[in-house]
Amino acid sequence: MLARITERGLGLLALGLSFGLGLGCSQAKPRTVAERAATGAEGAEPDEPDATPDPDPASLVAIHLSFDDAPGAGFAPGARPEQAASYNELNVEILATLAAHHAPASVFYNCDKLLEGDTSLAAWAAAGMEIGNHTASHANLAEVGLEPWLDDVRRCDAVLRERLDEPPAYLRYPYLSEGDTPELRDSAKAALADMGYQNAHVTVATTEWLLATAYSVVKQRGDAEAEAEIVAAYRKHMLDAVRAARELAIHEVERETSQIVLFHVNRLAADHLDEVLDDFEAAGYHFVTLDEALADPVFELPDKFAGTSGISWLARIHDPERERPPYWFGIEEGRLTEAYGALLEGD
Ligand SMILES: [Zn+2]
């Protein structure tokens, strides 16, 4: 676990540096939503005197909730079959919270983790949620190369086709790693399109998996105070992540876009997704399906990024010739690793 965190952390910190973190370069401050509201939204017709001003720009923000690493994050392939029951529970609890908030969602499976006795896949299907492919073994495209990676996609595809009434239509790249060269990126994209897959982009990159690991540690210890602190950090992290993504959207395309938020199927979400969704609702956000979110034309823009780091779609469309503000995700991951890294190392 530590190796993974260190590797990811360093990669993202390096990415943050390449985006101008800590280098003291001048940073264009993105226009805030309030400033935009004051100057008028781009979509408003100037010659339409009766156009009602938008009372709350946040209400325009459509949010899609997506959950990776099903049936459970950190769930090793080859786990004992009796563990299926506890993972079934995780998924059922998350689904109950989503139902209580009338929130459509998508879930992305690592098919190697499907144990005998798994009922989670059927539960997501019965709830009418979008079920996608996240590769069989969570392979990193940039590390394993095109053909082995496509084999991993195909293995999961075969399982999902066999178990679901509808063939899967979406793929979420593990680690959001879409290839470290333009050639690899474009070849993978073309092969996925041939298989009938659409990329389930993420616009709101998060590091909640790190908090979820820390949460499991303190929960096991019975440290209620530390647990409450992590839950508060989780709620703040998820709200800040959406806010940062909205600012990035305004910087890149000068308007609000739909936002696709990355969660993972973990105990932290099963226990506290309810509060996060309360916070989203209080911020004025509304929940939409993956189809609805991906209908935003922002997803038609050219991908300008090839690298080893997993970054959000709104960072991928950035023209490297233009300046941009520091990438929030890189800073946040560094901050959370500093705050909770020791817990993850078992100190
Ligand atoms: Zn994943």
UniProtKB/TrEMBL annotation:
<keyword id="KW-0378">Hydrolase</keyword>
<feature type="region of interest" description="Disordered">
    <location>
        <begin position="34"/>
        <end position="57"/>
    </location>
</feature>
<dbReference type="GO" id="GO:0016810">
    <property type="term" value="F:hydrolase activity, acting on carbon-nitrogen (but not peptide) bonds"/>
</dbReference>
<keyword id="KW-0479">Metal-binding</keyword>
<protein>
    <submittedName>
        <fullName>Polysaccharide deacetylase</fullName>
    </submittedName>
</protein>
<dbReference type="InterPro" id="IPR011330">
    <property type="entry name" value="Glyco_hydro/deAcase_b/a-brl"/>
</dbReference>
<dbReference type="GO" id="GO:0016020">
    <property type="term" value="C:membrane"/>
</dbReference>
<dbReference type="Pfam" id="PF01522">
    <property type="entry name" value="Polysacc_deac_1"/>
</dbReference>
<dbReference type="GO" id="GO:0046872">
    <property type="term" value="F:metal ion binding"/>
</dbReference>
<dbReference type="InterPro" id="IPR002509">
    <property type="entry name" value="NODB_dom"/>
</dbReference>
<feature type="domain" description="NodB homology">
    <location>
        <begin position="63"/>
        <end position="198"/>
    </location>
</feature>
<dbReference type="GO" id="GO:0005975">
    <property type="term" value="P:carbohydrate metabolic process"/>
</dbReference>
<dbReference type="InterPro" id="IPR050248">
    <property type="entry name" value="Polysacc_deacetylase_ArnD"/>
</dbReference>
<feature type="compositionally biased region" description="Acidic residues">
    <location>
        <begin position="44"/>
        <end position="53"/>
    </location>
</feature>
